[in-house]
Automatic annotation (TrEMBL):
Its cofactor is FMN. It comes from the Bacteria. PANTHER family: FLAVOREDOXIN (PTHR43567:SF1), FLAVOREDOXIN-RELATED-RELATED (PTHR43567). Residues 194-204 have a biased composition (Basic and acidic residues). It comes from Candidatus Merdicola faecigallinarum. Residues 12-156 form the Flavin reductase like domain. GO terms for molecular function: FMN binding; oxidoreductase activity, acting on the CH-NH group of donors, NAD or NADP as acceptor. The keyword Flavoprotein applies. Belongs to the flavoredoxin family. Residues 205-224 have a biased composition (Basic residues). Keywords: Flavoprotein. It holds the Pfam family Flavin_Reduct. This is Flavin reductase family protein. Residues 194-224 are annotated as: Disordered.
Length: 224
């Protein structure tokens, strides 16, 4: 079967659906944003695209700061709710029973229940037609301690992060590979391989012994 051509649209999935907290500890708000992503490694830069009609737009524009709070299965309901209600009318922290946590560098609160909160400072704004893209530098990342193991390694699989695709929220159930696995060399000398090799050697040795015995027996027969 071939492909059907559609008119241009924003069909680039999966993407994250994050809860962006903005304002300050007193006057704060949460807006759900799916138009977000990483745009540079060094310095670490991200963006969020927000429609100027959103209540959050003015808060972000005024302070030049926001926090990206990653969302997990437990936060899925609140993520959706904060994406359909406006902070002009409701206190989203209160209604969703979310707690504010003080950030290190920005005045906006972080969402305590989020597994990872990313402090951001706006560097550039770009109005693109429907949304304004806030390009921002990452100032700090706050990771919940429960996802960090004894060795200090961060286990992202424990966070139960969710993805957004074509109007739906999805869990990320299974890891199917890791960066570079397609070209990674197969590990030699793992225990399974070692056992097989030992068995192979043993079989060769036995075969050799059998051949020697056979030859000896034949020789004796001939001598008789
Ligand atoms: C899954 C999801 C993703 C969304 N992504 C965006 C987005 O990227 N940009 C945006 O301006 N609005 C987005 N919205 C809509 C806003 O979150 C929504 O209009 C919200 O009510 C605005 O809140 P505010 O008025 O308190 O700022 C999204 C909503 C949902 C449910």
């Amino acid at each position: 079967m071939g492909k059907v051509m559609w008119k241009p649209g924003t069909f680039l999935y999966p993407i994250p659906a994050v809860m962006v907290s903005c304002g300050d500890m007193e006057k704060s708000n949460i807006i759900t944003v799916a138009w977000t992503g990483i745009i540079n490694t060094n310095p670490p830069m991200v963006y969020v695209s927000v429609r100027p009609t959103r209540y959050s737009y003015e808060l972000i524009k005024a302070s030049g700061e926001f926090v990206i709070n990653l969302t997990n299965e437990r936060l899925a309901y609140a993520t959706d709710w904060c994406g359909v209600k406006t902070g002009a009318k409701v206190d989203k922290f209160k209604e969703m029973k979310l707690s504010k946590e003080k950030a290190e560098f920005v005045s906006c609160p972080m969402i305590q229940q989020s597994p990872i909160s990313i402090e951001c400072r706006v560097k550039e704004e770009k109005y693109l037609g429907s949304h304004t893209m806030f390009i921002a530098e990452v100032l700090a990342i706050h990771v919940k301690e429960e996802y960090i193991g004894e060795t200090g390694a961060f286990d992202i699989s424990k966070c139960n992060l969710i993805a957004y695709a074509n109007g739906g929220y999805y869990t990320l159930d299974k890891k199917i590979g890791k960066f570079g696995y397609s070209v990674a060399k197969k590990k030699k000398n793992n225990s399974k391989d070692r056992i097989l090799k030992v068995k192979e050697e043993e079989n060769k040795r036995k075969k050799k012994e059998r051949n020697i015995k056979k030859k000896k027996a034949n020789k004796k027969k001939k001598e008789k």
